[in-house]
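User:
I would dearly like some help making sense of a protein record. Take your time, and here it is.
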Amino acid sequence: MMRHAGLALIPLPFQGEVRPGDDLVEKLRLALRQQKLTLREGDIVVIKHKIVSKAEGQLVELSRVRPSRAARAWANKCGGDPRLIELALAESRRVVRKKMLDKRRGVLITETHHGLICANSGVDLSNVDGGRRAALLPADPDGSARRLRRAIKKNSGVSVGIVISDSFGRPWREGLTEVAIGVAGIAPLDDFRGKRDSHGYLLRASAEAVADELACAAGLVCGKLKRTPVCIVRGYRAGAAQGTAQELLRRAQDDLFR
């Protein structure tokens, strides 16, 4: 557990693998019982998207993928798996950038059907089953977050916020960081526009990406290799709201780089 100024980050390891059809709320209940914890009103539950994708059956057998000519051509150039590239193209609404980084490595940046900008449409082999199947992003991450929130309320009687997170790279910055791809029960943005700071200055452009910050905070204790797909953020007073992760996506007309 990590604490700072009244804020607690509580990692929740899960026992065993999550499989298609598994009840994530039941797995959460068991993990809480093992840690001798209970959810509290106002907690925010940050969930790695991979277990949501697994439970919802968003897994593809690579042996069944038939790469297109475009996928094979890019794979031959960049040294990638044409089946993964085919899945990335199928899960995208457009290719944002395709570039060779050196003679043997290339990068494929796409816009997913959800509107997320990320590498390979979020298609991933890590933490699945060693490379036999690929995990896709949840079909509707905001819908997944709403269903989980309702199920937790029904199961425990407690209202919590839900953030479904994934790891993305960032333009002009090295390293991955967590982002919110699904949200329920909290406002994803804390908008300070129209308010005055401590010196009386009127804020005109400040809107804080709270859901992304919560995802990043959880990432500090969950990690990539710890088999800890859930974190409870306790003590952050987000307040109940009907927000979605879609609100975090900048409109094309407001984007200086599109």
